[in-house]
From TrEMBL:
<keyword id="KW-1133">Transmembrane helix</keyword>
<feature type="transmembrane region" description="Helical">
    <location>
        <begin position="25"/>
        <end position="47"/>
    </location>
</feature>
<dbReference type="InterPro" id="IPR007274">
    <property type="entry name" value="Cop_transporter"/>
</dbReference>
<keyword id="KW-0812">Transmembrane</keyword>
<dbReference type="Pfam" id="PF04145">
    <property type="entry name" value="Ctr"/>
</dbReference>
<dbReference type="GO" id="GO:0016020">
    <property type="term" value="C:membrane"/>
</dbReference>
<feature type="transmembrane region" description="Helical">
    <location>
        <begin position="83"/>
        <end position="114"/>
    </location>
</feature>
<keyword id="KW-0186">Copper</keyword>
<keyword id="KW-0472">Membrane</keyword>
<keyword id="KW-0813">Transport</keyword>
<dbReference type="GO" id="GO:0005375">
    <property type="term" value="F:copper ion transmembrane transporter activity"/>
</dbReference>
<keyword id="KW-0406">Ion transport</keyword>
<protein>
    <recommendedName>
        <fullName>Copper transport protein</fullName>
    </recommendedName>
</protein>
<comment type="similarity">
    <text>Belongs to the copper transporter (Ctr) (TC 1.A.56) family. SLC31A subfamily.</text>
</comment>
<keyword id="KW-0187">Copper transport</keyword>
């Protein structure tokens, strides 16, 4: 039966039967692994935002191929995110306080490292579109004033 309370014991299996955390070295290796997995999980948001930039082309066939490639890449990112999420959930289900803390630390480090890049990319893109829209609105006003004259 599974232990249903939080524990600090180091004698347990970690993700695999062969991976035992009987000593402090095994526990530290498990903690480093979960931190790295948490950072990788958060880095997928940056990869996805870079992917959304997309490429444009003129030919219909090239557009279809580019769309298929885009959907394929997004699918691969989603599958990776789901697998990493489940692995991290299994790490938390060990109910070991040290492992849970390292998962949270990995998410926090990943968020700290990668989310500002995602937000700045999106905010600069939206500000450029606002500037572009503002310029087109101004040019439309000028054109309507000239045509009225």
């Amino acid at each position: 039966m599974m232990n249903k309370v939080l524990t600090t014991y180091t004698t347990s299996n970690f993700l695999f039967l062969q991976w035992k955390t009987d000593d402090h070295i095994g526990l530290v290796v498990g903690m480093i692994t979960t931190v790295v997995l948490g950072v990788l999980f958060e880095s997928l948001h940056l990869i996805e935002s870079k992917l959304q930039k997309g490429e444009t082309s003129d030919s219909k066939r090239t557009v279809k191929m580019a769309k298929c490639a885009f959907v394929g890449k997004r699918t691969a990112i989603h599958m990776t995110r789901v697998v990493l999420g489940y692995v991290l959930m299994l790490c938390v289900m060990t109910m070991n306080v040290w492992i849970i803390g390292s998962v949270v630390l990995g998410y926090a480090i990943g968020y700290f490292l990668f989310r500002p890049w995602t937000y700045t990319r999106n905010s600069t893109r939206s500000s450029k579109s606002k500037i572009h829209n503002g310029l087109t609105e101004q040019s439309d006003k000028l054109l309507t004033k000239e045509s009225d004259v």
